[in-house]
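Supplementary Text 2. Reproducibility record for the structural model of the 457-residue chain.

All settings were left at their defaults, and a single model was retained for analysis rather than an ensemble. We include the record here because the model underlies the residue-level annotations in Supplementary Table 4.
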Amino acid sequence: MLFRGDFVSSKRLGDLQILHDHLVAVNEQGVITHSEPATSASSRHLLQSDEPKTEIPPGSFLIPTFCDLHLHAPQYLYQGTGLHLPLMEWLNQYAFKAEERIDGDPVLAQRVYERLAERLLESGTGAVVLFGTINENANIILAKAMLSRGLRAYVGKLSMDISSRPTYKEASAQDSLTNAMSFVNNCRALCSDLPETLRTVEPILTPRFVPTCSDKLLTGLGELARDKQLRVQSHLAEAHDQVQWVLQERGVEDIEVFERNGLLTSRTIQAHCTFLPPPSLHKLAHHGTSVAHCPLSNAYFSAEPFRLREALDIGVRVGLGTDIAGGYSIDIMQAMRQAVTVSRMREGQRVIRGDEGRALSIDWKEALFLATKGGAEAMGIQSGIGTFTVSSPFDAQLVRLITVGGTGVGSLDFFDSQTVGGKWVLTEELVEKWWCLGDERNREGIWIQGRKVWPER
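Retained model, structure tokens:
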């Protein structure tokens, strides 16, 4: 398959690359085999071949799909409601009840998860890290929903042997460990007969967070992660009431609990981390642990913003998360904008205080990197995702800015000519306009591993 047109990507933090009239060739395995200007000799040779061709029309461009590093799949059931309580109360009043309901109703689970997969694709998300529920069967339904729509997904069965809701926990640490390994094996079995390039769903160990996991359970999960080379996800230093609970119950901060149990690794993604001071951020960098930055839910449940600039400066891998339903929007474009907004507020406070040092704000290009290549690196998915380079999987979304008649699509309006010498030219300014104002109306197609997965054929 050949794709000819304009391509946009961010290979490095703060970098934006626009490739005009470019040609990308994708083989049957969904891997990019050619990426050069359409006017090069090798590109002209390919264009003369019988390879199927997709022409990206003027006023449109291809950009990598987004990565969502933190989403509670069962909480999609009540997305957009119940955001008025502190975290620990909110879990009891909303989260645990919804998750228990999903576990007890396979029909409801399938309805919720199939719709979730569709909404993710509509929003341009091609890769997602999912918190599930306790029940293995419900998590297999979740994994199948993601696999059937071609999404890249890490699916996590919750491990929790402690709970403020007595009906929503596992019987013991040993039961929880047995259940976790059972899910890992059965989730992997879903993809075992598929070609390697189509094995897009994987299990991930998921201790919910320290307040719901005994030391015995965390120790066992750390051993599983090490022995089976499994990925891990959890919540770390998210909210004031949660941080204080851990200090009172365990006598140390939760980052120390994770570290001593072998759960801070280069295969770990920790959500939030808003209460981590600089020394703890250095600890994440040392272990290679990634952070899922969820600015919207942090505004609701954290009394502190995440130290994003400081984390990036010391080499912590960071991606963005929606944190449904602690955040109400499933759209990573919103998360990008919110990340910039929060960082600019932090920079304003720095200036008012008269603090010296580097500016704390990030710009839209840096946020775009976090949503694409940076997020893919933080997830640890296939090398090259988030770029249009040779040997990389072709994960892309088609964005349209202007109709054939020259009218802006969706919320976009254009009052000046975007043509040069009679030809429409994609500029950095136009990409920024889409970044600020674009939505699902601008999205016309999604490809993952070279397969068109949205809209459904």
